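Example record used in the benchmark description.
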Amino acid sequence: MIYFAHRGASKLAVQNTLPAFKKARALGARCYELDVHLTADGQLAVHHDYSLLSTAGADVQIGSLTARELKKIPLNNTFSNEPVFVPLLQEVLPLLTPDLELLNIELKNDANRYPGIEKKLLACLQKFSSLLPKILFSSFDYETLVGLRKLAKNARIGQLTRAFDVSQALSLQAQSVHISKTRATPAIIRACHQNQLKIYCYTVNEPTEVKQLSAVGIDGIFTDNIQLFI
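Model output (structure tokens):
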């Protein structure tokens, strides 16, 4: 069973921030998940939502801000008095390099909201060439993954889906399927394994759930409570 620190140690620090990833690594995490957006000036920002409304109380889209403007908006921090901000991917990667086993990067790109994000991401990762074999690319946007596969034939792809279709996963030459724990039926698990696809479930935060999922053959989970599974 693989345990991904979902947005870092997100039950102990503000999700998808430098403190969250630092804490996850300090706890012993070796596999992580994060989300990337494209800023107005073409930088890769690590954040889940397209807007800062829920995380900073600012009703503004990440894609409308430059990286410099983004750094002026502090995120809500209920864990400490430390000011925290949306980090850039190039700031996060050096934190995870030591002992990294697997990093799942989710491209937030519904309906091609960020044209060219695939190329920008691959260019950024070239600066961290030793990490590339340890990167697992995923997205809910199927065409984004199609575009990424065209750009990088050796990329490791995990199809993130709400409506499982094994033919799509196979056409992407994916190595895994990422699906909600509530949608992981025995038929889907069987179809994945029959086609040499790993199946990873999100978001799983309780040990009892992990036992149940492990018993039916799930290969890994994304968890906010990484401290419970190290």
